[in-house]
Write a structure and sequence with these properties.
Strand 11, helix 13 (365-375) and strand 12 form a beta-alpha-beta unit. It contains 15 helices and 13 strands. The two termini are 38 Å apart. It has 411 residues and is an alpha/beta fold. The strands form three sheets. It has an eight-stranded parallel sheet with strand order 7-6-3-2-1-10-9-8. A three-stranded parallel sheet has the order 12-11-13. A two-stranded antiparallel ribbon has the order 4-5. It is 35% helix and 15% strand. It folds into two domains: 6-336, TIM Barrel (Alpha-Beta Barrel); 346-409, no CATH class. It has helices at residues 26-37, 50-53, 62-77, 113-130, 161-178, 191-194, 202-207, 222-226, 231-234, 236-244, 272-283, 325-336, 365-375, 391-397, 405-409; strands at residues 6-10, 43-46, 81-87, 90-91, 94-95, 136-143, 185-187, 212-216, 255-260, 289-294, 346-350, 380-384, 401-403.
């Protein structure tokens, strides 16, 4: 078990947001990274915008790749490791997809042979450019790319679970070809765990890549249903960490809480520090946690138009690089946390059938039972229904008690 958990931030440039790639200013990036390092963070997750880096299927812009390398090197100079997301994809309510996949050139992101060739070449190129650089952790395929695969996206690139499995396998292999041995993974938003018809499945999330990534946002119905100071809201990140373990084939597969933030107005600015502290404390009580990466580093500038209101204030730092109260909470945890969680010995049974994922969503019986147990101090984890009587599996995970949602929620 590690003696410490990695603490980092999702890097949102203070000048130009992710459009800074168009006018890359290394001095501005360095100032941003100085303000991140001052929080005690040890890593950042960074986001090339796919259309800016690969505007044509056979053109990956050398200057853009060079700028990414310069950013990674600048981070390393400040003691910050870097994970790089490839296919952006989707960020803060905006889609960024290259023109060679849309409108007159409309081709499926997950199944079209030429698109797949282009994506694989792009991921391989980025990984190869960064291979061996000090501080380069590895690639994440993209940010929440599952949102393109079905509703509620207004124009989805529909695919079957089998096609998604093939896509994940090929794209992760491309990253490995570019940077052998690095920590390559994929990451989706919580519809993977909650939405019955999502072709990206929990099993894929927990079995493909170097570790499992979860993204925790309490605007998914959790805070609306239960309130900002409730057990479900304050432990939502911990819930997703433990929920993911039901599908993992390795007893102690690492889990990365790769995105978590305090979204207004459900989490008002005056409560953001308390929410940050509660969320981090709960996550640190989860065994096999690799890291916590807060969304995000810096606020979005009010000079930029059309973002949802909540996006403007999610930073630990203001747009002027000043720390907020939530940054002080984060910094204390990053510098002084201890990580020695006891095993979670009580396991809640969850259905393996991906068509029953809504049981795990806010209001579902698994969700509600998990937080009933949490409120009672039971520190639950989860186990698939098909493994609930597998003595070897339970023993490997330290589970000594198995309960069903019906048993927990019975009057």
């Amino acid at each position: 078990m590690p003696s410490a958990v990695r603490f980092g931030v999702n890097y949102t440039p203070s000048e130009g947001w992710f459009h800074h790639w168009l006018d890359f200013d290394l001095d501005s990036v360095r100032a941003d990274l100085d303000s991140v390092a001052a929080l005690g963070a040890d890593h950042v997750r960074v986001f090339p915008l796919w259309p800016y880096f690969q505007p044509n299927r056979t053109l990956i812009r050398p200057r853009a790749v060079e700028d990414l390398v310069r950013l990674v090197d600048a981070a390393a100079e400040r003691g910050l490791d870097v994970n790089v997301d490839g296919l952006q994809g989707h960020l803060s309510s905006f889609d960024y997809l290259p023109a060679w996949t849309r409108t007159w050139h409309r081709r499926n992101l997950f199944t079209d042979p030429e698109v797949l060739d282009g994506q694989a070449a792009y991921l391989r190129t980025l990984a190869a450019a960064l291979a061996g650089r000090p501080g380069f952790l590895g690639m994440t395929l993209g940010n929440e790319v599952n949102q393109f695969s079905t509703g509620p996206h207004p124009d989805p690139d529909r695919a079957t679970t089998e096609q998604i499995d093939a896509w994940l396998t090929r794209m992760l292999a491309a990253c490995e070809e570019g940077a052998p041995g690095a920590l390559h993974l994929h990451a989706e938003y919580d519809a993977t765990w909650y939405q019955d018809d999502m072709p990206f499945t929990p099993a894929q999330a927990a079995r493909h890549g170097a570790m499992t990534a979860v993204h925790s946002w309490v605007f998914d119905g959790t805070a609306q249903r239960h309130g900002r100071t409730s057990v479900p809201t304050e432990h939502h990140g911990a819930y997703l960490i433990e929920l993911s373990k039901a599908w993992a084939e390795e007893a102690h597969r690492p889990v990365w809480l790769q995105e978590v933030g305090a979204p207004a107005p459900l989490i008002p600015a005056a409560h953001a520090a308390a929410f940050t502290e509660a969320t981090i404390t709960a996550a640190l009580d989860c065994p096999d946690l690799w890291g916590i990466t807060w969304w995000c580093s810096h606020d979005v500038s009010r000079d930029l138009a059309d973002f949802p209101e909540l996006e403007y204030g999610l930073g630990l730092l203001t747009n002027g690089r000043r720390p907020k109260p939530s940054a002080e909470v984060f910094a204390r945890a990053a510098r002084a946390h201890t990580y020695a969680p006891k095993p979670r010995t009580t396991a809640l049974v969850v259905p393996a059938d991906p068509a029953a994922r809504s049981h795990c969503a806010p209001g579902g019986v698994v969700f509600e039972a998990f937080f009933r147990l949490t409120a009672d101090g039971a520190r639950p984890t989860t186990v698939l229904d098909g493994r609930a009587e597998d003595a070897a599996h339970l023993a490997a995970r330290g589970i000594t008690e198995v309960v069903t949602p019906d048993e927990v929620l019975a009057p």
